Each structure stands twice: as structure tokens, then as C-alpha cells.
Amino acid sequence: MTWSARIQTALDERRQADAFRQRRPNAGGNGRWIALDDRRYLNFSGNDYLGLSQREEVIAAWQQGAVRYGVGSGGSGHVTGFTHAHHELEQQLADWQGYPRALLFISGFAANQAVVAAMMQADDRILADKLSHASLLEAAVQSPAQLRRFAHNQPASLARLLEKSAVGETLTITEGVFSMDGDTAPLAELHHLTRRHGSGLMVDDAHGVGVLGEQGRGSCWQQGVKPELLVLTFGKAFGCSGAAVLCDDATADYLLQFARHLIYSTAMPAAQACTLQAALTCIQQADDLRDKLAANIARFRTGAAQLGLRLTDSSSAIQPLIVGENRPAMVLAERLRERGMWVSAIRPPTVPPGSARLRLTLTAAHQPEDIDILLESLNGCSHGISE
Predict the structure, then answer these.
(1) pLDDT tens for residues 102-153?
(2) 199 given a catalytic annotation
(3) What three-state secondary structure class fits 184?
(4) Which residues have a Cβ under 8 Å from the Cβ of 84 and sit 6 or more positions away?
(5) Catalytic annotation on 133?
(6) Catalytic site residue 157?
(7) 3-state helix, strand, coil in the chain (%, to 5)
(8) What distances in angstroms separate CA 218 from CA 63, 98, 126, 213, 222, one per listed residue?
(9) From the candidates 86, 236, 261, 366, which is the catalytic residue?
(10) Is 175 a residue of the active site?
(11) What is the pLDDT of residues 2-34, one digit of tens each?
């Protein structure tokens, strides 16, 4: 088969399965509203949970950082890309989370890939929640270590795997809040098991940090857990992009020597680090925004229950509405867009077959009337949609 034939076959298969992905350029704004094709929609697809991407002080920090440092970093952090802004942000993150060190990465995907690739060797094993993010599972598959998956959020399943001996080291991997189901991992139980069996614990808290715990410290803080490796990403509640890995001094020094994403990638712009410092300050003082987000979530779930909508067991900002098959999910998303709601239909392979869904995300920027309009629209649009 030629390259062109292989490519065309793969594309045809995606289209036939109603799983073909397309991007839509928007005219700016990722807060309460989003503008596409000369029309404004209520945005229920973004991850800017606290609305910080639109905050004046956060925007001003980027502008001031660009004036001081320019718009690029000029190289990797090992060459010229590590500035005082980066250094200060790493220290602030470490102090906030109670870790000795923090290391910045250009994205959460890069952070997860870098850590797993650098830490794991051929005699080691990785035990990962089966619904862990693609960046984690892909890194585990590509590493020389043995990968075993435990049943989603089931400590007993992890315990059975941990009881089996391993030649090398064991790393257990999970998320704090899961990106597609919106549910929270039982971190305290998982941490107890990993400590008892001598396994390290790595938690990706992309969707928990900023939203949960005292000062928004996240899922681990909320459950009294301090994993050996904590990954925080800045594309959600921080309203920006990038990520950090928090760990002890020795692990940080090791990653600086062997994490290829750190060594060979151009560092995030210093202006971005300045922006993240401002966002962190906002998060630490954002109890009112977290309370508003919690109220929006409760309002939506109460209304959805009254309508008999099929939601997952999620108390987070991620509220997946399970539809089932791909075509009905796409039809429902399009009907909602006709009513001015921007939502995304999530289909396999991102989620398991037969669990296509609308991934509805709520933010502190939404008003109570926005939630009511969404519920009314869901009630009106869902009739006649069958799996």
C-alpha cells in the first residue's frame, strides 16, 4: 500500500465511523462567550474554569513581561531560555504546593512524556489507571517498562497488581480529576497502597489544580496526599498554557539531566512565566470564584437530574452527558449550536466505543441564567435523539 493510499484509507475509516475531527477557527475569546462564523455562542467547551484568561491583571502581566523580556525565550532552559521570571515561578509553585522543587515544561503533554521517559527502565513497571490521559498512557507504552492498567478508580484492582513482585521499580499513575469523565480519583487510598508496596505515585492534576483544595492547591492537597511526582498544567484554571512537575531535589536534578523535553525544547517565553505568576496570585485569592463555580455545577446537576439526563458521577467542572453512539452525539451538539450553545461532541478513540458524549464544561464566568438556558436547550434538543 502506498503512503497516499494508507492515508486515504485511514481518513475514510474515520469519516465512516463519524469520528472525523475538524478544527474551527474562532474570532477570539475563550471565556463565557466564544465567536465563530460571525456568531456568538455561550461557551460550554473551554477549560478556563476560573475565567483567568480574561482577567485584566493576568493580561497586563503578559504585556509587561513581553516589554521586559521580548516575546520568545531564545532557546532551551539549558542554554539561554531560563530567566529570573522562570526561576521565580518555579519557586512560587514549589512553596505553594509544599515541594522542594518545581520544573517548568511547555505543555502538560510534554511534562508527562518527559517524566515517564526519563524515569522508567526495562526492568521497571508502570501501573496506570485505565482512563488516564493519552499523554500518560502513550508515554507508558513507548517506555521500556512493562505497562499494566488497573480498573478505573478501583484501589482493589491496583492492590492486586502491586502484590505481584517486580524486578525493578514501580510507578503508579493516575489523574486527580479525569478529563473525560470528570470524576475524582481516590488518591488517599491509592497513596496508601503505593506507600505500602514501595511504589512511586505520579498524579496529573490538570483539572483539579486551581479549583479544588485550600488556595486552589488541587486534588492531592484536598485529600491530604503528597505524591512523589505531581504534574500541574496551566491550560485549565490558570487560563494560560504550560505545565510544571513538582518533586524532591534529587528527582529535579535527575530530570534536568535526562528529561529530553527539558533539554531540547525551547523554553516557554518569559512573558508567559510572568503571566503565570499573576494567575497563581489570582488562584490563591480566588475563593469567591471557586464558590461561584461550585454553585454553577450544583445548579446544572440539579437541573439535569430533574430532566433525567444521563451524566457521569462528576462533581467537577467537567459534566459529560453520555449519548452513546457517534452520530447522535454529533447531531445533539449541532442542535445546541443552532440555539447558541457551543459544545463539543467527544467520540472514540478519545473515549471508549459506545460512550460518545457531550463534554460540557462549566466555569466561574458563567451566570446562573446561562446554566438555565443550557438546561432548557438540552431538554428541547435531546428529544428524538436515539443511540
Answers:
(1) 999 999 999 999 999 999 999 999 999 999 999 999 999 999 999 999 999 9
(2) no
(3) strand
(4) none
(5) yes
(6) no
(7) 45, 15, 40
(8) 28, 12, 24, 5, 6
(9) 236
(10) yes
(11) 999 999 999 899 998 888 888 888 887 678 999
